[in-house]
Automatic annotation (TrEMBL):
Residues spanning the signal sequence: none
Keywords: Lyase
Family matches, as InterPro entries: Aldolase_TIM, DapA-like
Entry protein name: Dihydrodipicolinate synthase family protein
Any GO molecular function: 4-hydroxy-tetrahydrodipicolinate synthase activity
Stated family: Belongs to the DapA family.
Length: 335
């Protein structure tokens, strides 16, 4: 675990490689229970079978808004226990976003005790008074904890921090060392780097990596919360091989590999089911049912209740058909 005082020096060396954001397998009536065996199997697959060096727990893909405080605590504890038994050096990242600062504090203190390495706080989802309110939120948590903190700037919050607001949080809260920029705004990420060059930054728009931003030090060599386990298998680790080329600064080779391996086309064929609900197309979401539908195609356990919990809708059959065709075309699923 990185304590607050050492967070920034730690982050520069420790945050590297693929960080898998885990879904939550549900079971029971209406998905009211969690399939713990399926969750443990997912962790073993990511850390053991795929060899990915980081986990991202209880965040958007995990449907944190639909989980109780106690469920979120237990999910993190199981992840730490299972992952460290396989790889003692695995970096465990916990999202402790919550509507109230007090709930966020409870989850952050628990993550600190449970052995998480860093905590990410998504921009609050309700009644956020702009950057001033988010800064107060971070200061409240930092004053009462001693663990590395990261920002999670997601449009699913309904409010996205400006580069100036994020930089102010970084400069005024020493425990803040990293940020996941999830709004697909490369120009804003470049500006944030100019304002806070010491901040470890991951940009969700992968084109910036092909443009040499890693070489230039604008973005980091880690994926701070993605679903890499849905883009490859142990027998065909195409996602890992692609990012190894990026990290080695072999950009032309990476672009060729993205095309020739089918990864680029796969993203087009999958459409936007992971992040867009057709009934509300302007809203960015983390559709848990879509991630679990994709996982099931790869043979990963998703629990007896394959849907998201409310307030998310059930994934339509058309989406599942489209995903199945995309995976077959990529060659990760047999025809």
């Amino acid at each position: 675990m990185a304590m607050a005082a050492e967070a920034r020096s730690w982050a520069r060396g420790a945050l590297r490689g693929i960080g898998n954001s885990l879904y939550t397998p549900f079971c029971g009536k209406d998905g009211d229970d969690i399939d713990w065996d399926a969750y443990r199997a997912l962790i073993r697959y990511c850390v053991g079978d795929l060899g990915h060096p980081m986990l991202w727990c209880t965040s958007g893909i995990a449907e944190f808004w639909a989980l109780t405080i106690e469920e979120r605590k237990r999910l993190l504890e199981v992840a730490v226990d299972q992952a460290r038994a396989i790889n003692p050096d695995v970096v465990v990242q916990a999202c402790t976003a919550a509507i109230s600062a007090k709930d966020c504090l409870e989850l952050t203190l628990h993550a600190q005790r449970a052995g998480a390495d860093i905590v990410y706080i998504q921009t609050p989802m309700m009644e956020t008074h702009g950057g001033d309110g988010v800064l107060r939120f971070f200061k409240y948590i930092a004053a009462r904890t001693d663990i590395a903190l990261g920002m999670f700037n997601s449009p699913s919050s309904g409010y996205v921090l400006t580069p100036q607001e994020s930089a102010r949080i970084y400069h005024e809260v020493p425990a803040v060392c990293a940020t996941k920029e999830g709004a697909f705004r490369p120009a804003a990420s470049r500006r944030l780097h100019e304002l806070a060059p010491g901040l470890v930054l991951w940009e969700c728009d992968k084109t910036v990596y092909r443009a040499g931003w890693l070489r230039d030090g604008i973005v980091c060599a880690a994926q701070l919360g993605t679903a890499g386990y849905l883009y490859e298998t142990p027998a065909r680790p195409i996602f890992s091989e692609y990012w190894d080329l990026i990290r080695s600064d072999k950009l032309l080779e990476a672009m060729d590999y993205g095309r020739d391996s089918g990864l680029d086309q796969f993203e087009l064929d999958m459409a936007s089911w992971f992040t867009c609900y057709p009934g509300r197309p302007e809203y960015f979401t983390h559709w848990g049912g879509a991630f679990k539908a994709a996982a099931s195609l790869l043979g990963l356990p998703i629990g007896a209740y394959p849907h998201s919990r409310p307030p998310q809708a059930e994934l339509p059959d058309g989406a599942k058909t489209q995903m199945r065709a995309a995976y077959r075309k990529l060659g990760l699923v047999d025809a």
